[in-house]
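Notes, Module 5: Reading structure tokens.

Key idea: the token line is not a picture. It is a compressed description, and you learn to read it the same way you learned to read a sequence, by spotting repeated patterns. We will look at two proteins. The first is printed below with its tokens.
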Amino acid sequence: VKTHLQAQTLAAVAVGHQHNHENISGAFASIYKQHGVAGLWGGVTGAVPRVAVGSAAQLATFASAKDWVCERQWFGEGSWAAVLAGGMVSGVAVAVTMTPFDVVSTRLYNQPVDADGAGKLYRGFWDCILQISSKEGLLGLYKGIGAVYLRLGPHTVLSLFFWDELRKM
């Protein structure tokens, strides 16, 4: 529903498939009416790996980066600056690992579907990756990485900072 609404624009400037929902409740109703509950889960095959890979990268790089900064004595052990530095490194790792999955998820969510709910452009997760890679090159999987970092970087830094502080308690 989110992707359908975010991709929607005026016909004069529209790029890609347009779903033409009037509002959020209309989008839910339209998707449900056309494709049932399964339609509301379209694209999940791209979203689940995205979250798994992003979370793994976030936690692994945070601990390693924080330890590395402390070992170099750039910041003291337990310093909030070490936590922020670890969070910044982790934010970069999250953006690099999650962006291909974001691109795939967005394409799967936003593609037009037939009456049975099958995608008209991609047959699934792997087909989407292969098509993007072959038509746009590997960098096609990194479209929007700057915007991804601007969204995930601060979120990662703050989440890990608060997590680290709560863990100390």
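Here is the second protein, with the sequence above and the tokens below, as before.
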Amino acid sequence: YLGVMPAYSASDDALTTKLVTFYEHLKDSSVPSHQATVLLFDPSNGTLKAVMDGSVITAKRTAAVSAIATKLLMPPVSEVLCILGAGVQAYSHYDIFTELFTFKEVRIWNRTRERAVQFAGAARGPVRVCSSAQEAVTGADVIVTVTMATAPILFGDWVKPGAHINAVGASRPDWRELDDELMKNSVLFVDSREAALTESGDVILSGAEIFAELGEVLKGTKPALPEKTTVFKSLGMAVEDTVAAKFVYDAWSAGN
């Protein structure tokens, strides 16, 4: 799969496109499934200003958006963080979530236990490796799903009422991470309605109703409802790469 994600932000005076490749089930696990490059242009004349490692930008901006959603939607008292998956996005989410929030316990589960143990060993704080997804999820206040699952691995009857879920994997219309019960009995937030209704199997196949885009909550036109069980379905938007790339370029320029 090769994706091209162009975007322009007038407010940031930034024009970019991201080229991202996705290879499913690689035998060589040392190569990431997703690889990306971001090209930053001068919006006034189209000159190429920079070529950036899009994989780093993708990992950081995706986790940052999940953190914004979590800040708005998580229960007022949140003590347990659960991460399902142990890939690149698990690391970036762990880093920003433990920097911004204070959790008493962090749990990790991965289909391959070896990678979960490796993740726990690399973490800057204590992480409990769980033997099953259900064990990891039970009683958790904030759940992050960052897996390559094509069928549900998170079920509604496991989830603590009032918990917040960031659903980051399953970015195809026939792939799932969350079951119907969880999707239909939670308040559903998305980054983009248009994208969710064409790309997210969790949304399309469950028939769950989208309550709001995250931007609507940030603007104050829709309430956050942190007292409810909430799901934020993240698919990623090109403008997130644009803003992040411009931020990196400006910081680099200032230092030079």
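Summary for the second protein:
- The chain has nine helices and twelve strands.
- The mean pLDDT is 96.
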